Amino acid sequence: MTFLELSPLYALPLAALPVVIHLIHLYRRKQVRWAAMMFLFTAQQMHKGLSRLHRIAILCLRVLAVFAILCAIARPLAGGWLGLTGGAPDTVLVLLDRSASMEEVHPATGVSKRLAAVRNVSKAIEDAVGRRSKVVLIESGHGKPLLLEHAGAMTDLVETAATDAAADIPGMLQGALDYVTTNKTGRTDVWLVADLQRSAWAQESGRWEALRGAFAALPGVRFHVLTYPQVPEEDLGVRVERVAQRRSGEKAELLLDLRVARRGAGAGAGPLEVPLRLVVNGVATTSKVTIQESELLLQAFPVAVDRSTVRGWGRVELPADAFPANDVFHFVFDEQPVLASVVVSDDEAEAAPLAAALSAPAEPHQKYRCSVLPVKRAAEIAWEQTGLLVWHAPIPAREEAIHAQMKEHLAQGRAILFLPPANPGAAEFAGLSWGAWETLDPPAGPDWWRNDTGLLANTRDGTALAVGGLEVSRLCKIGGAGIPLARLPGGGALLMRAAEQPAYFLATLCGAGSSSFARDGVAMFAMLHRALQEGAGTLGAAQQRIASADALARGGEGWRPADERAVPAGEMVLKAGVLASGKQLVALNRPASEDDFSTVSPAVLKECFAGLNVQILSDAMEEGGSLTSEVWRTFLVAMALALVGEALLCLPPRRAASPLERGAAGAFAVHFSKS
Amino acid sequence: MAETGSFLEPAVLARLMALPVHARHAMLGSVSGKHRSPVRGSSLEFAQYRKYVPGDDTRRLDWRTWGRSDRFYIKEFEADTNLRLCLLLDTSGSMGFGVEGATRFDYARKLAGTLGYLAAKQGDAVGLWSMAADRVELPARRGASHLGLVLEQMGGLRPMGGTTLIGALHDVAERIRQRALVIVFSDFFVPPAELKGALQHLRFRRHDVAAFHLLDQQELDFDFERPVRFVDMEGGEPVQADPSLIARNYREAVANYLKEMDELVRTTGLDYHRVITQERYDAVLARFLLGRTPKTGSR
Known about the structure:
The complex is a heterodimer of chains A (675) and B (299).
Chain A: E1 2-3, H1 17-27, E2 30-34, H2 37-73, E3 76-77, H3 79-83, E4 91-96, H4 113-129, E5 134-139, E6 145-148, H5 169-183, E7 188-195, H6 198-201, H7 207-216, E8 221-228, E9 234-248, E10 251-264, E11 272-280, E12 283-291, E13 295-305, E14 312-317, E15 328-333, E16 339-345, H8 348-359, E17 368-373, E18 386-392, H9 401-411, E19 415-419, E20 428-429, E21 432-444, E22 448-449, E23 472-480, E24 483-487, E25 493-497, E26 503-506, H10 517-520, H11 522-535, E27 542-546, E28 560-561, E29 577-581, E30 584-589, H12 602-608, E31 614-618, H13 626-650, H14 659-674
Parallel strand pairs in A: 4-5, 4-7, 7-8, 8-31, 16-17, 16-18, 18-19, 19-26, 27-30
Antiparallel strand pairs in A: 1-3, 5-6, 9-10, 10-13, 11-12, 11-14, 14-15, 20-21, 21-23, 22-24, 24-25, 25-26, 28-29, 29-30
Helix pairs in contact in A: 1-2, 2-13, 5-7
Chain B: H1 10-16, E1 35-51, H2 63-69, E2 73-81, E3 84-90, H3 104-121, E4 125-131, E5 137-141, H4 144-156, H5 165-175, E6 181-186, H6 192-204, E7 208-215, H7 217-221, E8 228-232, E9 239-241, H8 243-268, E10 271-276, H9 281-292
Parallel strand pairs in B: 3-4, 3-6, 6-7, 7-10
Antiparallel strand pairs in B: 1-2, 4-5, 8-9
């Protein structure tokens, strides 16, 4: 155990004060000359052991009370905190969330949640168990167990540095479970250090139940969950949603779609002028923009570039605030790739309008190409050049090669739109499957659709798509759990997105026999091109990707930071920035979920660990850290308990009746009987 | 040396003068007195008839009975004699318990002095024994001058040292050869089993034994609030004790002791008086004297 304030420890000998006072009292007690010593001796003899024990107990409690108050004043760190939970375990597993959201800094101390967490936990473990336990780190970036020499080494590791990736708490716990079961770690303390960001905890995930069951079956595993629930009071964040190039005559410029979000207390506080710094190929310009409410969407924001510049990288920066991770967004640009799509269908009538829509340019400076393949030629799909696959055929079984290729296609960030086949099978993909066909008589149109995001969102100028006017006469039910984007009256999903991947299921066909999608055209065109745009992000030599451990899994080797910044090789994929390899440019950025400050409640947190041996602590990130605060309270409670115990022991016993009150009648009766 | 005035109060003596000191058993006195004698004498009170045996004084033959029964009978009468009052004062250190001037010993001295005075005034012999290391032994004698000596010696006694009560009682039992009324004034802070032997010894010598068991209310209540250092008044080791912890056990020990004393009284036929020294001593004496008055009336 260590202490923040050492000076009160010099007063620790004062803990012996009760003993000294007791001894002084012993020799300065009131003296009484007493005759009936024989009764006194008898009483002493009868009470000797208990009396001594009683006296010792009182003295010990008094000493404990003084000791506790001195320790509380000395602000003990961690030792008491851990000490209360028992001795040193065989293994200490530290699960560290180092997602972008953990980079929020405390305005007073300037220390990020991650840094505070690493410092506190390493010191706590170091103080409490020293080097007696094996310390293993599992961090959210790579999720691989890393054996440490000692807990103190954590602060110097690149594996505990900041990242711009997301965290997957259930995934980290699964990693811990695998490590514990594989290595038979014995008595294990699992320290989970994270903020309470809802997306990281994924409390709706079915994995929690399995994890709880598995951990409950393991004896000797204890959890210490150190949370950082703070959210920034005021924050500005920026994202670049689209990058395009435009050339006209001698003029060349980049067109950026920017979204500047304003969160926290200032979100509704009136217009705010924000300096926007744009860096393109190392050249910086600053523009001022004004946010009226909580969000500013700048579409086709022009940034002039040299006409000879056709490829490069850049970033958009906002002034630093409490959450610096979302103040920068990187982008890359190159000659526009052909936005290629493939329609796989045996029904030419259905495929034709789809191909026509996907071939028609949505952007005048963009090239589009769409090819139609029958199902039996699906193997000819050029996966690397395809941004969107429209699959109008039964879902391939899990064992089929095409199934794995589809999964890989999604993993690369490209999109698939599933259309219902004539004979839907039982197979599923990305958690979704087809049900039975049904006919709607009369035909119905969607009564609800998401107009804020997704394939049916409003246009950039805020105009709603004419989705409500669509008519659907045949519907194939969608099974499984996904994110509904449009619903028909009665609750049936018309369009659904898989939970975590750009895989879409449309419950009807676009042809005249099933719906008016093809006839009305606009909704279908927007839907298809948005799906294509989403999937085309990873096409071409310049790609936007999400920072994660597998961000460059298929990108080849030889990646280096384009801006020549020094980043450890293993950490490159976890940090926002621009990486280059040959002609390839990749801009890595934080996932959108890291900009969402919604948190899980303490009740949900408890529910996640229900039935497990868990201690949930919250670090206030104040100066000195909350660990101190926790131990301080513990000592105060100990002191209070000691004083209460002492008071109870010092309570005078109920007065017994005087012997003569009990025996006088008998005594005098003897006398009178004699007389 | 204390003045006799300090333990003899004329008002109390005057009030108690009407209550004579009676022995409960026959006494063997040397002179005629108010107390019954085991020897048949020539008083006016008829005692019994018994058969004549050779050697009897023929002058005491009852001729009327011979005339009626043709047998010789001797007519016997009660003899009245004087009383020997032996006052046994415990002078061990524990008798000094109490506030200055109103100690247990002062109380005992008032009881003993008053009784001695009353006995002497009715013509009985009075003696004094102190039961401690430096003993005072004044055998019972009659006369005002002897009473003066007894009171003077009594006034000079001081409670000190350890108790020798048991040994002293055995010693007194051996030394007092003739029947006497033996009154013991003590706190009896000795094991009742040992005390029983000593009292039975006195009874064996045919003494009429009475005891004043003098206790202080504080010794019974033991109502101290804070830890106290108890100093043994008889010179033993001091005891550190927290009365709040041991009071219950203390009172239990006292109760057991008193119960044993009650049992001792029952088996020895002792004329026992348990006295709380906060009581008025004249009331205690009146109770004692009235208790010894024969039911048939005083002679």
